[in-house]
Design a protein that fits this description.
Low-confidence stretches: 1-28
Strand content: 35-45%
Mean pLDDT: 93
Strand order of the largest sheet: 24-25-26-27-28
Largest sheet: 5 strands, antiparallel
Shape: globular
Structural class: mainly beta
Radius of gyration: 27 Å
Distance between the termini: 32 Å
């Protein structure tokens, strides 16, 4: 709950499977698996997950990544997950084969943990070679700034299975990619050879001579093999050959290293390349296409299925799993799921089959989870990536758009490991939080009733104070095309059960990726009212038409029988209702442009003045043109608007709030602009700005963080909070003279701090892809940060 609603309330990857680490229960202070006092409040899952990696030492230890930046570790086979954050999405994990305390994860650089994953240190490039990091662009993407101004990336990484100090890596330095080797644990690197393409994996044959390992380097064109120190290039020169992904493992029976590959049109590849599930036992010299055992299930004349992911066991490579979609077995019947072979792909079974026909039938050996329960369609899809137990091929994890699924019996049964259903029928998270949230609406007549505004999974409801959640948009009046995103909800502080919500089929606003190609013309969404606390909803914005509605503001001083409300339509402007939301009139007088990106509003408590934020259109770093964002003021109830002056150098306003103690105080949260001609320059023009003269002049009160999404004020203790896209949230107790980082919270993309109306010393932090965090308002002073020492922010 931000200042607006709170005042109203008061008034009323690629995986190398060698080695792993185990986090002992004694090290966790929090029963939900975290190492600090923070909690995750949510339903669990609901976003894309990738790269499951099962420990070769303990099948209960698994690592998973998320496309929104967070990574997760479990030490009890998915019963609970602990999030850790390494500045960006992790593309692969590598476990030390000798030392169980050591693991590696590749993000903006290659990170190393020596304490079982509790803390991480930048491993490559070395800390001594780095000046720091900068955050650039709309998503505040972090970039390592090296002292020699080179751009570096470790595309693939492997550790000698018998000697931890022997390392192999495919490293890109600017535009040059090479294979490197280190004999001293990464202190020094020697280039083995150049590679004129990007690298997907490095596999090591554990039976090869210890002093001269056989390496398999995979690329989209095939494999480059090193044997006895000599390199053999087995890549194809045919234009149509393109391998999407690989998986490899050693077969003890044949004493051969087996590599599988998949190709063809899929989620990862939209090119019409030949389809196949390929097998090689000689490092790619020859390949056998072993998809026939599956394509023969297709109806005559049907296209082959799309192969999404492939995974084999590191030490039992005769077993291989493949996820697939669009297996047309009949004119009106399509299979989607996972196939399994225990004879190197010669024959196949289908341990996971969702059937798409006139109706969608979920796999009978996969118990219901919340999103299937809610949508009754294959919203999660089938696995993007698969991780197979290195020592037990009956263990397999698969990750998709919504969940991490697990089998421990070779596919006979599957289970979702992101959420757990409670006795009341609602669901709670297991710690794997990957959703985007905008705000929380607390029912003023029931302290345990909360509505949460989500992206992609719509609105959620809790009836037990946030412990468990259930969809609040199923068969209750919300149009199907609007259920994707709820941006804002407000309860009437005086009328029990009454509330309003704005919803849209377009998610992730105001991020430019949502309008850079097609503008806002196709946006769908609108305004709804409830009179029974959200059990049912009624559309009340027919006169507006379809629109990406992003904010709704209630005038608490208006007649409770005919409330005055204001709403933002992204691309259409501002709308006003004076009859409790039943009818709406556009109020754009004075707002520039034909398609104003009206984002959100604020109402000053003392005099009712309205403030409007219009989002920036540009993302190219320019300023001083029609694509700048803007802020407006209205002193006549939105009948007319006056454009205000933004702080110098700022054109990306994101939120403006008032302070009830100081009638002329305005606080602006803003997004920085990136420098097009300097890849290592930090963004400028963002942060937090303060005006004490009603917007005539502005002072920069937070400059070191250039991507502030929202500022929140708590009138109970006169404390300010701020949150944004630089892995930090802040508080200030001296009117923003100084800011303190809220320790323990470190998710990369933060949205806003929401006040807990039950406890002024607790806060919620809404995020863009990291769920909802709940914890101490001033942070956990004993929290151990994920990256130690922290990378200096330039």
């Amino acid at each position: 709950m931000n200042t607006k609603s709170f005042i109203h309330f008061l008034g009323a990857i690629t995986i190398v499977l060698f080695g792993v680490c185990f986090i002992c229960n004694s090290q966790t202070k929090n029963p939900n698996g975290r190492n600090d006092v923070w909690e995750h409040v949510g339903i669990g899952g609901g976003g894309a997950q990738f790269n499951p990696a099962v420990s070769p030492h303990d099948p209960h230890v698994v690592l998973v990544t998320c496309d929104m930046g967070g990574s997760f570790i479990t030490h009890n086979a998915g019963e609970l997950w602990r999030m850790f954050n390494l500045s960006s999405q992790v593309s692969y994990f590598v476990y030390d084969p000798i030392n169980p305390n050591v693991m590696y994860a590749n993000s903006i650089g290659l990170f190393k943990s020596t304490d079982k994953g509790n803390t991480w240190t930048l491993f490559y490039p070395k800390m001594a070679e780095v000046n720091g990091i900068v955050s650039r662009g709309d998503h505040a993407g972090e970039v390592i700034v090296t002292k020699d101004n080179t751009s570096r990336a470790v595309q693939a990484f492997a550790i000698d299975p018998a000697a931890s100090e022997k390392l192999f890596a495919a490293i890109r330095i600017d535009q040059s990619v090479g294979i490197y080797q280190s004999a001293n644990g990464g202190e020094n690197w020697t280039k083995e050879r150049d590679i004129n393409s990007n690298v997907k994996n490095i596999f090591i044959d554990p039976s090869s001579p210890a002093n001269n390992r056989t390496l398999f380097v995979t690329t989209e064109k095939g494999i480059i093999r090193r044997t006895n120190g000599a390199w053999q290039d087995n890549r194809s020169t045919e234009a149509q050959v393109k391998y999407n992904s690989f998986s490899g493992g050693y077969d003890t029976a044949t004493k051969k290293y087996i590599i599988y590959a998949i190709s063809g049109i899929s989620y990862w590849n939209n090119e019409a390349t030949p389809s196949g599930i390929y097998f090689t036992e000689n490092g790619g010299q020859t390949w056998e296409n072993r998809q026939e055992g599956l394509t023969k299930l297709c109806a005559p004349g049907a296209n082959p299925p799309q192969w999404y992911a492939i995974g084999t066991s590191a030490f039992h490579s005769g077993t291989v799993y493949v996820s697939f979609s669009r297996m047309t077995v009949h004119a009106d019947t399509i299979y989607n799921g996972v196939a399994k072979s225990i004879d190197f792909g010669k024959t196949w079974t289908l341990p996971w089959v969702d059937i798409s026909g006139k109706t969608y039938i979920n796999a009978s050996n996969f118990p219901m989870d919340w999103f299937v329960e809610r949508y009754n369609v294959p919203w999660g899809g089938i696995p993007f990536t698969l991780g197979v137990g290195p020592n037990n091929p009956e263990v397999c994890y698969g990750t998709d758009f919504a969940r991490t699924a697990r089998t421990v019996d070779g596919g006979k049964t599957w289970e979702t490991m992101t959420s757990k259903q409670q006795p009341n029928g609602y669901w709670t998270t297991r710690g794997m939080e990957v959703t985007t949230g905008y705000m929380l609406a607390f029912d003023p007549f029931d302290k345990n009733h909360i509505l949460k505004a989500y992206t992609d999974v719509g609105m959620m409801e809790s009836i037990d104070g946030g412990k468990s959640w259930l969809s609040a948009t199923k068969n209750n009046g919300v149009p199907r095309s609007w259920v994707n995103t709820t941006y804002w909800v407000v309860f009437d502080p005086e009328v029990k059960g009454r509330g309003w919500a704005v919803m849209s089929g377009t998610h992730d606003l105001p991020r430019p990726k949502m309008f850079r190609r097609n503008g806002t013309k196709g946006y769908r969404g609108g305004i709804l009212i409830t009179n029974d606390s959200g059990k049912t909803w009624q559309v009340v914005s027919e006169a507006i038409g379809e629109a990406g509605m992003t904010h709704i503001l209630l005038d608490p001083k208006s007649n409770k029988n005919a409330r005055t409300l204001y709403a933002c339509a992204f691309g259409k402007g501002v709308y006003k209702s004076t009859d409790g939301g039943m009818t709406w009139t556009q109020k754009n007088k004075g707002i520039e442009g034909d398609e104003p990106f009206a984002w959100l509003m604020e109402r000053r408590q003392s005099d009712g003045t309205l403030f409007l934020v219009v989002s920036r259109r540009s993302e190219d770093g320019s300023i001083g043109n029609k694509d700048d964002g803007a802020i407006y003021r209205s002193t006549d109830g939105a009948e007319s608007w006056t454009k205000m002056t933004l702080p110098e150098g700022c054109n990306g306003p994101n939120e403006i709030i008032t302070d009830p103690r100081y009638p002329k105080r305005l606080v602006l949260a803003a997004w920085g602009r990136f420098h097009r001609n300097d890849r290592f320059a930090p963004d400028t023009g963002g942060g937090i700005f303060l005006s004490e003269d009603d917007g005539k002049t502005w002072k920069h009160v937070m400059e070191n963080d250039q991507h502030i999404y929202a500022v929140t004020f708590d009138p109970r203790n006169n404390r300010y909070y701020a949150c944004g896209f630089n892995a930090s949230a802040y508080y200030s107790e001296n009117d923003m003279k100084t800011w303190n980082r809220i320790q323990g919270y470190n998710f990369k993309w933060g949205h806003r701090v929401v006040l807990d109306p039950r406890d002024p010393e607790k806060i919620f932090i809404m995020t863009f892809g990291g769920g909802t965090w709940y914890g101490p308002a001033k942070g956990d002073k004993n929290a151990v940060e994920d990256v130690v020492p922290p990378l200096k922010r330039l």
